């Protein structure tokens, strides 16, 4: 298929297999054993665990020497120290557990700390976003690009709102005071992987979050960049996957948006 290398085909297959399992679990969410990692606002269930195991086993078959960083299982170092899979098997767990069909399987491959390929599969919408460095960004089999809207007043933004147990609540309030009079709208989907995919295909003009993990954003980094967008931290400098913040935006509004979301 268009724009699909063997590497991306493997990642898509793993994401879609995990997505099929998630949809089976989604149909019976009232029977899932729900637990919590960092307090009551941070749930997970056996659906997360099963999805991660599906992804891990399929990727290990394809590249047994690569490392694997998963949200649920942590880091498993590989013999190949240059490459590591970065996986969120169910981004948007809270949505999933209340029956809201906005969640995704997120798979990225990093080489020497830089993401070179990414897949975000949104099973409830039957949408698979994918990209690898130099190959463009794709939604299913259609080439995608970021929004061409050039004015902030016309922009639709998405944000990760800090929930209980996360920091920077007052900073979020400040950001909203600065931005709401200057944009067409601000959304909060509750799944950063989906937010970044929507920036890549032009549905949103930007997404930012001030407390985010590597597995939430890694796949979206390459997808947004290959779609013509810019991905940095929220200070506007080089993105560190372990740095905890991310801004994915169109080039047109980056400077004005950075001015509004910088701390202080």
Sketch the major β-sheet: 8 strands, mixed
Assign the CATH class of the largest domain.
Alpha Beta
- Please tell me the CATH architecture of the largest domain by its name: 2-Layer Sandwich
CATH topology of the largest domain: Fructose-1,6-Bisphosphatase, Chain A, domain 1
Query: Count of helices?
Result: 7
Strand content: 25-35%
Helix content: 25-40%
List keywords for this structure.
D-Maltodextrin-Binding Protein, domain 2; 264 residues; single chain; Fructose-1,6-Bisphosphatase, Chain A, domain 1; five-stranded mixed sheet; eight-stranded mixed sheet; alpha+beta
Verbal overview:
- The protein has 264 residues and is an alpha+beta fold.
- It folds into two domains: 6-143, Fructose-1,6-Bisphosphatase, subunit A, domain 1 (Fructose-1,6-Bisphosphatase, Chain A, domain 1, 2-Layer Sandwich); 152-261, D-Maltodextrin-Binding Protein, domain 2 (3-Layer(aba) Sandwich), CATH 3.40.190.80.
- Helices cover 32% and strands 28% of the residues.
- It contains seven helices and 15 strands.
- A hairpin with a 6-residue loop joins strand 1 (34-36) and strand 2 (43-45).
- Helix 5 packs parallel to helix 6 (214-226).
- The N and C termini lie far apart (47 Å).
- The model has no long low-confidence stretch (mean pLDDT 94).
């Amino acid at each position: 298929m268009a724009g699909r290398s063997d590497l991306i085909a493997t990642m898509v297959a793993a994401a879609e297999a995990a997505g099929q399992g998630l949809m089976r679990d989604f149909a019976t969410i009232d029977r899932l054993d729900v637990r919590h990692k960092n307090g009551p606002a941070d749930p997970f269930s056996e659906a997360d665990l099963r999805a991660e195991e599906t992804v891990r086993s399929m990727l290990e078959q394809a590249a047994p020497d690569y490392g694997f960083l998963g949200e649920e299982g942590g880091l498993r170092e590989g013999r190949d120290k240059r490459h590591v899979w970065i996986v969120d098997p169910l981004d948007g767990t809270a949505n999933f557990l209340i029956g809201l069909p906005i969640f995704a399987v997120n798979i990225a491959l990093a080489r020497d700390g830089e993401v070179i390929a990414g897949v975000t599969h949104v099973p409830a919408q039957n949408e698979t976003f994918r990209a690898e460095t130099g190959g463009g960004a794709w939604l299913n089999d259609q080439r995608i690009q970021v929004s061409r809207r050039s004015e902030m007043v016309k922009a639709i933004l998405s944000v990760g709102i800090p929930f209980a147990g996360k920091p920077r609540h007052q900073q979020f309030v400040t950001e909203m005071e600065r931005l709401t009079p200057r944009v067409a709208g601000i959304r909060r989907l509750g799944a950063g992987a989906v937010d970044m995919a929507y920036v890549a295909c032009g549905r949103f003009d930007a997404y930012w979050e001030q407390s985010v993990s590597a597995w939430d954003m890694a796949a979206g980094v390459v997808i947004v960049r290959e779609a013509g967008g810019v991905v940095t931290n929220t200070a506007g400098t080089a993105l560190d996957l372990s740095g905890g913040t991310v801004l994915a935006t169109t080039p047109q509004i980056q400077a004005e948006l950075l001015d509004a979301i910088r701390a202080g």
